[in-house]
Design goal:
By secondary structure, the chain is α+β, with helices and mostly antiparallel strands. The chain has one domain. It has 5 helices and 4 strands; from the N terminus they run βααβββααα. Strands 1-2-3-4 form a 4-stranded mixed beta sheet, with helices on one face. The longest helix has 14 residues. About 5% of the residues have low confidence.
Length: about 110
């Protein structure tokens, strides 16, 4: 069982339904050598992805949970969406590039 930081009991009230379901699944399905962080600040802008998943043999994965219903997605009007017209791939790439430039310290992941 993977370890979630902070413990799920202390942060479950702050999670959306999708985040909660994913947290439980990640904890249960991943092996003991996996570490999971919920809502930890990353990069120079202190962005807060929903989950950071780390395994010393496999690497690091940053997850942002989108738990929309299919009907909600169908009803989205592109014109009323945010002013940010960048693709999700571009946003992730920019975030990863920015995080590579920041000095790495273990204290950032412990908070």
């Amino acid at each position: 069982m993977a370890a979630l930081i902070p413990a799920i009991g202390t942060c479950v009230s702050n999670m959306t339904g999708g985040e909660r379901r994913l947290a439980y699944r990640l904890e249960q399905k991943l092996e003991d050598d996996w570490l999971l962080w919920y809502d930890v600040p990353l990069g120079p802008r202190n962005v807060h992805p929903d989950f950071v998943v780390f395994n010393p043999r496999r690497g690091l994965l940053v997850l942002e949970v989108k738990d929309w219903k299919l009907d909600t997605i169908r009803d989205i009007d592109r014109q009323s969406d945010s002013n940010d017209n960048r693709s999700p791939t571009t946003i992730v790439t920019l975030s990863l590039t920015a995080s590579r430039k920041q000095p790495k310290t273990s204290n950032q992941l412990r908070e």
